[in-house]
């Protein structure tokens, strides 16, 4: 398993890091946070012009034809820059459409997403069991000409600004094993979204479906047999979120070591004191471990290994807790200044808590692994 970046992937990382450093200063990030939309359409179009929104679309649909590994490199840089954006859900949806969509879905949706004209929100969490893979709060009732969707979804990121919703639904009755993934117009009659107030900068929504119509042409894959697609999408989601947290943890380490080398106490940089050195060393080890376990999970998923899903769950459990610990150590290094709203560290601290809980925390995933092992 060679986890080193080749020249093309290193160029991808370097170019994106340079772009985000220039286009996402603190002032712009604060403006995005203050905006009800939670993202910048101008920044989105700039990313589209550079090809970032076509990363996972095949070349014939206006994209680069890259895969999960490259997508996670980009998302890691978003985490490092502390940029909240609908990129996460849109690009995972693009990857799902490219892999599992029909010809008409690819021809219509992939060019739109690649050109930056279509935002997609993932809408699949059951309010009663939000992180269970094959659970949804939506029921699709068969009717003449298709299906009528009723129910609610929690934690649909950026659904309030999305053009499309990738929605998981049970066919016929709640809790049944027949599942379908529908790609719906976010402004369809019978769909209503409301923003949730959460600790992180990423905008999360609660979606209500009350009579929204869907047809067989709206389904991603076969109706009633969406389980394999949902499992693949969940694996991608977990490792992408891990990559985002690795990027945030890396930046916290950079902030802490930079501050420790400049802040003076008793006439010396505080980084010369052993206690601070231990904090920074523990942070560096944490970042390295989080990166390695994430890269291994991505590698296994791309190879289609049978234990890939378990490894993705282990990575999410490990990285989520590690990111929070790194942020806590970063606060110890910074002292009081790190707790102020004006300092960048608070952005990563809030992100660590939100990302750790998103898609299931450590306890959820470790319980799932134990259950599959019969423990």
Notes on the structure:
It is a single chain. This protein is α+β, with helices and mostly antiparallel strands and about 375 residues long. The chain folds into three domains: about 5-90 and about 100-115, Butyryl-Coa Dehydrogenase, subunit A, domain 1 (Orthogonal Bundle), CATH 1.10.540; about 120-220, Butyryl-CoA Dehydrogenase, subunit A, domain 2; about 225-370, Butyryl-CoA Dehydrogenase, subunit A, domain 3 (Up-down Bundle). It is built from eleven helices and nine strands. It has helices at about 5-25, 25-35, 40-50, 70-80, 85-100, 105-115, 225-260, 275-305, 310-335, 345-355, 360-370, and strands at about 120-125, 140-145, 145-155, 165-170, 180-185, 190-195, 205-215, 265, 270. Strands 1, 2, 3, 4, 5, 6 and 7 form a seven-stranded mixed β-sheet that branches. A hairpin with a 2-residue loop joins strand 8 and strand 9 (about 270). Helix 5 (about 85-100) packs antiparallel against helix 7. It is globular and about 80 Å long. The relative contact order is 0.10.
- The structural class is alpha+beta
- Rough shape? globular
The span between the termini is: 30 Å
CATH architecture of the largest domain: Up-down Bundle
Strand content: 15-25%
Could you list some keywords that capture this structure?
single chain; alpha+beta; Butyryl-CoA Dehydrogenase, subunit A, domain 2; Butyryl-Coa Dehydrogenase, subunit A, domain 1; Butyryl-CoA Dehydrogenase, subunit A, domain 3; globular; 51% helix; 3 domains; 7-stranded mixed β-sheet; two-stranded antiparallel sheet; 11 helices; 375 residues
């Amino acid at each position: 398993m060679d986890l080193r970046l080749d020249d093309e992937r290193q160029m991808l990382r370097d170019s994106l890091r340079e772009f985000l450093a220039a286009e996402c200063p603190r002032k712009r990030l604060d403006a995005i946070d203050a905006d009800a939309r939670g993202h910048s359409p101008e920044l989105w179009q700039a990313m589209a012009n550079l090809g970032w929104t076509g990363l996972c679309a095949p070349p014939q649909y206006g994209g680069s034809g890259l895969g999960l590994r490259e997508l996670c490199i980009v998302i890691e840089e978003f985490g490092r820059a502390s940029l909240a954006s609908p990129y996460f859900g849109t690009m995972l949806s693009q990857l799902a459409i490219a892999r599992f969509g029909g010809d008409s879905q690819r021809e219509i949706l992939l060019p739109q997403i690649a050109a930056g004209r279509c935002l997609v929100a993932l809408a699949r969490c059951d309010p009663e069991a939000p992180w269970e893979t094959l659970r949804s709060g939506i029921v699709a009732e068969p009717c003449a000409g298709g299906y009528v969707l009723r129910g609610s979804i929690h934690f649909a990121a950026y659904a309030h600004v999305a053009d499309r919703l990738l929605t998981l639904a049970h066919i016929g009755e709640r809790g049944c094993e027949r599942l379908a993934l529908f790609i719906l117009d976010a402004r369809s009659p019978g769909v209503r979204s409301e923003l949730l107030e959460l600790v992180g900068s990423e905008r999360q929504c609660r979606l209500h479906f009350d009579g929204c119509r869907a047809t067989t042409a709206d389904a991603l894959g076969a109706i009633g047999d969406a389980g394999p697609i949902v499992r693949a999408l969940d694996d991608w989601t977990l490792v992408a979120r891990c990559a985002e947290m690795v990027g945030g943890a890396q930046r916290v380490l950079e902030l802490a070591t930079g501050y420790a080398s400049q802040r003076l106490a008793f006439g010396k940089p505080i980084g010369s004191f052993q206690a601070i050195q231990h904090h920074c060393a523990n942070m560096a080890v944490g970042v390295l471990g989080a990166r390695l376990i994430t890269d291994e999970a991505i590698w296994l998923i791309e190879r289609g290994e049978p234990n890939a899903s378990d490894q993705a769950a282990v990575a999410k459990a490990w990285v989520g807790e590690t990111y929070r610990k790194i942020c806590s150590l970063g606060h110890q290094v910074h002292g009081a200044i790190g707790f102020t709203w004006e300092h960048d560290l608070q952005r990563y601290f809030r992100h660590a808590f939100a990302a750790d809980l998103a898609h299931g925390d450590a306890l959820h995933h470790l319980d799932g692994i134990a259950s599959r092992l019969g423990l």
